[in-house]
Specification:
It is a single chain. The protein is α+β, with helices and mostly antiparallel strands. The chain is built from twelve helices and 16 strands. It folds into two domains: 174 residues, Gcn5-related N-acetyltransferase (GNAT) (Aminopeptidase), CATH 3.40.630; 190 residues, Gcn5-related N-acetyltransferase (GNAT) (Aminopeptidase, 3-Layer(aba) Sandwich). The strands form two sheets. Strands 1, 2, 3, 4, 5, 6, 9, 10, 11, 12, 13, 14, 15 and 16 form a 14-stranded mixed beta sheet that branches. Strands 7-8 form a two-stranded antiparallel sheet. This is N-acetyltransferase domain-containing protein.
Length: 381
């Protein structure tokens, strides 16, 4: 059984989160870590607390976790969560332990002690390898930023200090998978073939797009079912549960814009989905982690700062991928930006580094990877 311990040579104390006060320390630590990183976007503290609520959030109905804090001289200087996602392990027939929500001062001894605590905990849970960062799975925030530190993150994309790479390498982790994020702006010259070929495909009349004017829970369920079919063979995929879909609906329905989420049909058969979300990060930055009366005023005052959106899901069922539907989805995004004056950019990601078809479509269409994220792995036996 894992026990709190001290690295006496380094003066670092590792302990688990046991009280509300310690949970508050865990949640609030990033505000100190990122004090000198102006591009960092503070999350809503209430959202983080909700995700970490092991009694209420649906993720924890099929997962186990332990929250760790690192202290030196009485001050909290690091945090991490050790995870076992039973749904992932059952789906892939693996014994994966995971780590996530890692934040730490540039303190190699503290970081190493945190990772050692995670390793010990997941080994005791019977896991054979460790992967991260997963916050807490690929259905949420995934990966460590390794390129693109000079650019602000898009909604639900991670940001971290560059020194995290060295802290993770020093703990013995190796690259498992890189994730790309692409950025489309109105000034990018899209090759003519994108327009001519997509026009020809539309003229055939086989493809139609349907976007509900008002989304319902049933629409979210249908979206998730298509998501499962499109991503079922992808690295890292784990199916969402019905309870997670309900949670997703609660979070998405208030912010979905009509043309930002749609179903694609090929000869009247449901063939794919696309989901875009306004990039609320400029507002989140002004909220500084808090919701309240002041946040409502800030929303009114600064809503004009939302000038982009994130393409969260681009999914086409396998049997329709050679029918030109990925190109039509990409063309839809281009048209959306061009016709809506408010929006100047779209963040497309993430995309697996070995998703050659999608990456080639983006790059042949005039885009280049804008940011790169990495998921690490370490064998435990």
């Amino acid at each position: 059984m894992w026990k709190p311990h001290t690295n006496y040579s380094a003066g670092v104390i590792i302990s688990t989160v046991q009280t509300r006060k310690e949970l508050a320390e865990f949640i609030e630590l990033p505000w100190r870590i990122y004090e000198d990183f102006p591009l960092w976007v503070p999350p809503l503290k209430s959202s983080v607390a909700g995700l970490l609520d092991r009694k209420k959030h649906p993720f924890w109905k099929f997962s186990k976790g332990e929250f760790f804090l690192a202290r030196r001289n009485g001050q909290t200087i690091g945090r991490i969560i050790a995870l076992v996602d039973n749904n992932y392990n059952a789906y892939h027939d693996e014994k994966m332990g995971a780590w996530g929500f890692f934040e730490c001062e540039n303190d190699p001894e503290a970081a190493l002690a945190l990772f050692q605590a995670v390793e010990q905990w997941v080994i005791e849970e019977g896991m054979t390898f460790l992967r991260g960062p997963l916050n807490p799975s690929t259905n949420y925030e995934t990966g460590l930023l390794i390129q693109g530190f000079d650019k602000p993150p898009a909604l639900m994309m991670s940001y971290n200090p560059p020194y995290y790479l060295e802290l993770i390498h020093a703990a013995g982790f190796r690259k498992e998978k890189d994730l790309f994020s692409y950025r489309f702006t109105k000034d990018i010259e899209v090759p003519e073939w994108v327009f001519s070929l997509s026009d020809k495909l539309y003229q055939k009349g086989d493809v139609s797009i349907y976007y509900p004017k008002k989304w319902t829970k049933e629409d979210i369920h249908l979206l998730c079912s298509v998501y499962h079919e499109c991503w079922k063979d992808n690295w890292g995929f784990v199916p969402t549960t019905e309870d997670e879909e309900i949670e997703l609906a609660k979070n998405l329905l208030p912010i979905l814009e009509p043309e930002f989420a749609f179903f694609m049909y090929y000869k009247n058969e449901l063939a794919g989905i696309c989901l875009f979300l306004p990039d609320f990060n400029p507002l989140l930055k002004r909220f500084n982690g808090k919701l309240g009366i002041s946040a409502l005023f800030k929303k009114v005052l600064y809503e004009s700062e939302i000038t982009g959106f994130r393409a969260l899901l681009f999914g086409i069922k396998e049997q329709y991928r050679q029918m030109g539907l990925p190109l039509l989805a990409f063309k839809y995004l281009i048209d959306l930006i061009q016709k809506l004056p408010k929006y100047q950019y779209a963040e497309l990601g993430w995309s697996l580094e070995d998703n050659d078809a999608m990456n080639r479509l983006y790059e042949d269409g005039g885009l280049k990877p804008d940011k790169r994220y990495r998921v690490y792995e370490k064998d435990l036996i």
